[in-house]
Each structure stands twice: as C-alpha cells, then as structure tokens.
C-alpha cells in the first residue's frame, strides 16, 4: 500500500515514522506547506517527499493521512474522498460544528472511509476499561473521572486558533467517556479559570477547566484539564461501579506522588510522560495500523465522522456552559 501524509509537523513526523514501520505499507509520500520540512521528515524515515499537496495527490496513492493544520483538514478530507482515497484525519475534521456538518454533507453517500484520530480508543488502558464496563464486571457505573493535564502551555499563536480548551483538549476526554461507557451525554455544567499567561484570556480561552457531564443513564462524569501541570503530562480515566473500579493511564511514569512518606512504592519509577506523543506512542501506532486495515477493507471504521461530531457537540456545550455560567443540554447545541 502506498500512503500519503499531508503535514510534517510534530505529529506528522511521528506518523511518518509509524507508517514507514508498518509491514503492509510499501511506501510513504510526505508533503507539507513547508517543502523543506517535508523533505527532512521523509529523509529520516526513508519515505518520499512531494513538493506540494497537488503533487502528493498525483503520486499514485492508495490512502491518505491528514496531519496538517486544522484549517486545512476539511478541504483535504473532501478532496481525498472525491479521489476515492480512504483518509485518516487527526481531529478535528473542521474547526467548528458547522464546518464539520458541511464536510459530512460533502462526503455523504460515498463508501470511501473517513477515520478520525481519537487515539485513546487504541490506548490499552482505555480499551481495558471499556471491556470492564461492557462485561458488567464493575456492576453499574455511577462515576467517571477523566483528566488531560499538560505540563506547560503551547505558544500564544496556537491558543488563538485552537478553539479553546474544551474543543482542543477535553474533546479527547469526551470521546473516551462515550467510547468506554457506550452512553451519550445529555447535559453539562462547565467552568474555567485563568491564573497563568495573559494570552489565554486575550484569546477568550481559559488555562484550566472542569466539566460535569450527565450521561443518559444517570452516570456522572467529571472532566478536568489544565495547561499547567509541571509534574508532567497526565491523562487518566477512572471508572467507578457498584461492584468495582478501574483506572486507565496509571503506570510507573504517571506524574503522581503521595503527599506523605508512607508510599515510596507508589512514586513514579521513571521520568514522567513529557507530552502526548510520549504518553500515547503505542496507541498512535495501533491507530494507524487500524487505518491501514480499514483502507484495505480488512476491518470496519473504528471512528467515523459521526463519532467525532458527538464529541465536538459535548465540547461545544461545555464552552457555552462556561461562557454563560449555566447548565446546557445537548439539544441546545445540536444542528
């Protein structure tokens, strides 16, 4: 299989390495708005470099991976589908709900698969938590706690175009909660604060946020996020049921330390996770491996656009709740 990669930034470079390592991928072609960066990434992994996106599409591809800037996602996805190319796109498909719906309208009726990148669906801990819930081993689930804690904020320019903490960051938690429980969110109550850099408030964003989600069976899910967790990158999902509990993301590199001196065995044994590519390296590899199987017709699409849209609806509801300081139902944000 010959796979194209649009975008050679940090996550694109990681995807280039993963794709080049897959036995079922014969060749990888990399393109980026910065042609020199595409050549550099391609050279590191033994891939080809295309001088432009047009050249990438003309290079005889069997499938396409989109890891470009968010503003380019929708156009690239639609172009790939119209060319008959199965496409994997990092979230989001578009910067907002209206753009996502327009994309879905544009590809409706096509049998070309579009897989959206929510890598926690391929994280071993989240998959095991899902199995524990679905098997009934935990009894009935009453509470979930999910967190995404960045060690340091990204640049101000990134924040200005990110869509805000809920849409950019917590949307992964929202998707993970739906994935693990199989339930839908009915209403949210969210808040946020700014005690860090001024550029968050200047962009209308927050650097720390929390949300309480009510699911359609009465289960409560608490989600927290921050750009300031200097201890390290921390993503966990805790699931509590009437008969037991489990936690995903707790290992010897989770940046947690006991408050007293009685738990030395609970202290991290290795360096804390530095960023998402570190924490989810295996999940990203499994995700792209799954995409190649989807593109080859060997498996069903594990995350179609409809799944991405549901997580985005929850993020939109949380942002509205934060801004208006009230409970928001999902019906208020659905189109």
Shape: globular
Mean pLDDT: 96
What Rg, in angstroms, do the CA atoms define? 20 Å
H and E string: EHEHEHEHEHEHEHHEHEEEEHHHE
Task: Explain how this protein is built.
There is one protein chain. With 335 residues, this protein is of the alpha/beta class. It folds into two domains: 111 residues, Rossmann fold, CATH 3.40.50.720; 182 residues, 2-Layer Sandwich (Dihydrodipicolinate Reductase, domain 2). 39% of the residues lie in helices and 21% in strands. It has twelve helices and 13 strands. The strands form two sheets. The protein has a seven-stranded mixed sheet. A six-stranded parallel sheet has the order 3-2-1-4-5-6, with helices on both faces. Helix 1 packs parallel to helix 2, helix 5 runs antiparallel to helix 12 and helix 6 crosses helix 8. The longest helix is centred in the C-terminal third of the chain and has 20 residues. The radius of gyration is 20 Å and the shape is globular.
